Amino acid sequence: MELEIKILRYNTESDEKAHWDIFHVEALPDDRILDVLLEIKSHKDGSLAFRYSCAHGVCGSDAMIINGENKLACQILVSEVSNPIKIEPIRGLPVIKDLIVDMNDFFDSYKKILPYLISEESSGDRERLQSPEEIERIEDTTKCILCAACTTSCPVFWTAGSFIGPASIVNAHRFIFDSRDQGKIQRLEILKGINGAFRCRTAFNCTNACPRGIKVTEAIQEVKREIALNS
Amino acid sequence: MKVVKHSFDGVIIGAGGAGLRAAIEAGPHMNLAVISKLYPTRSHTGAAQGGMGAALANVEEDNWNWHAFDTVKGSDYLADQPAVDILCKEAIDSVIELEHWGLPFSRLESGKIAQRKFGGHTVREGEAPAFRACYAADRTGHMILQTLYQKCVSMGVKFFDEFQVLDIKIDDGVCKGVIAYEILTGDIHIFESRAVTFATGGFGKIYKVSSNAHSLTGDGPGMLFQKGLPLEDMEFYQFHPTGIYRLGILLSEAARGEGGILINKNGERFMERYAPSIKDLAPRDMVSRAIATEIREGNGAGPNNDYVLLDLTHLGEDVLREKLPDITDFVRTYVKIEPITDPIPVQPTAHYAMGGIPTNVNGEVFSDEKGTILQGVYAAGESACVSVHGANRLGTNSLLDIVVFGRRAGKSMVDYVSKTAHMTLSDNSAEDVINKITALLERQHNEEYSVSNIREELQESMSSNAQIFRTEEKLSKQTEILENLRNRSKNITVSDKGKVFNTELLDAIELENLLDMAEATVASALERKESRGAHTREDYPERDDLNFLKHSFTSKDTSGKIKVKYKDVELGKYPPMERKY
Predict the structure, then answer these.
(1) Distance from B18 to chain A by nearest Cα, in Å?
(2) For B42, which of B38, B76, B310, B370 could close a Cys bridge (C-beta 3.0–4.6 Å)?
(3) Does A113 touch chain B (CB under 8 A)?
(4) B284 included as an active-site residue
């Protein structure tokens, strides 16, 4: 089938403003959008820039807006979107080139919530015990691949880039509710600040955007509740 | 071109499991930089699924010696047995250490780390399948990558994200640093560093159907091979039995560990014929060969009889949801099949390089088959060849390899840095790299010499001629094809002439590495006139211990001529036996 692909292009090096380019591409219904982009890059325009790596939704490189929704290009098939297909960079982070945005602020926010296990306990030479129920408590939020699809779908983040964002709260949740972790109070202190969890207005965009199916909004609500209970 | 200079004691190239684990070891003791062409969390360790083998004995009696026996037998006796002992013994503490750093392993009712069965892992030297693979659902690699990165963040490890290392400077066998390209700006960075660890991963992109990320192009081994240094055991490339048909996306062996079976078009569980005792849990080389044989004999399923079926329907919805959630989602996403009710079309997919940069058990790199050590250069993980995997790696042993030998490489960096003085690099040490990039950018674009055309032909031809079944005829043909592609690649052109995120330029440079990997694979495969592990020569169907119980060392001289030399395998407790399961 022939597709019409409209891509929002911009290059900090040479362009004053963004513009749309249109490509016509032959594709199979079960090709990924990433395959279509690679076809364009390989045979139509080698300068088209986008990040990609694993090509099956686990590395988190290729979040972009496809027909208005935040998706991973490698997780969406041609048959699942209507033609023509509009592709834009994710919103709220500075565009560097075409579909590539500057991720530094995103990772800086992630680092703010102390994204590592904090435990003073001497753990001995065997594993700490944890029940299947205890690990299940954090199973959902440990799936995060830091693709930024959630954070860049959040209306609060678009208007206030200082908001720590859903992805950081999801990663905080993963530690706050880990039975082995002892850094809960420190993290809650960070998250109750002006740019923390309470900026969330439960728009649910993040939950819809998550390519890993994480219940992001629910995780944020659980963190808010924990802040309330501990203050 | 702008040139920026940095001074470090140690540099690690690559931020997957091996690189991050080396960084955790070395970071506190030196001024260290980790340079990665991707954000660390994008590394392909994150795609590993099923588990990490270690004889924790959480489910039933187990013993690291049994793990070692299985690994040696799985390797078709080509692994170095003292190295395998280290791998299997240190596995236990390595898993515990990851737990202590926060890795969210799946748990047993007892609260201990859960363990499951995996291909080729047995108790009491082959008696029955062993519960040895420690797992976090079917996203064990993701959890390892996240946990190691988190640990690095907590330690303040210095990262250079989205920088591509293009050259290593070695003078008279002594390392002095690396030259990198900053993807964001196109600037060149000179890193003075007397210790350099390669942890750049594999090179599955030499094949068309592969489980590997697009980024896996053999950058580390390529860099050394281009300097005339040897690569070890390059003929041994693993095809994972269960890639999603056509796409190659990995469906973990854990699916069979949990009870899944392979069937052909007649609904026959054909592995019963190939491995009567452990059947679908035979090692990967045997299962992939069995699938390829079934397809060749017309027993493949589908309209073209070119795949077999992975049947998980009898496992029940709960097992799939709790233990195999990701891979069942992949099946739903990419082939629109519901694995609870329907079997899944699979075919072998290019998966793992047993070969790579030759190292000893401390990650120190050899510059020849005699064991001469390259001062200050280390390698770990898939880019290295210790060798613990020999001719065929067992499932779950790669995630072990990265942490056990990543740690050892990191420790070797610390020892070396503490007893050597700082190395300097002159401002013109980046000249070769600058000339190469300038030439590529200045050459007028010509579609015939585009990256993608050459790469597509490389992948197609390697898949046709140097895959699971090999013959002298096909390998010779592939040698000619590679010569032709190599000649064309000398005129390779790119259409993007910019500095910012010129990924086409990087694709061109990576393609050169892929060609190197393919050349080394084919040359060593031609010379190995026997069948062992993943290397099957139809014209030499038997294993030949008399002539080939040896590691190959393949190198290329300045004229482009390839030589294959050999080094004896280090044997141990387990004398080579016939490999039956």
Answers:
(1) 17
(2) B38
(3) no
(4) yes
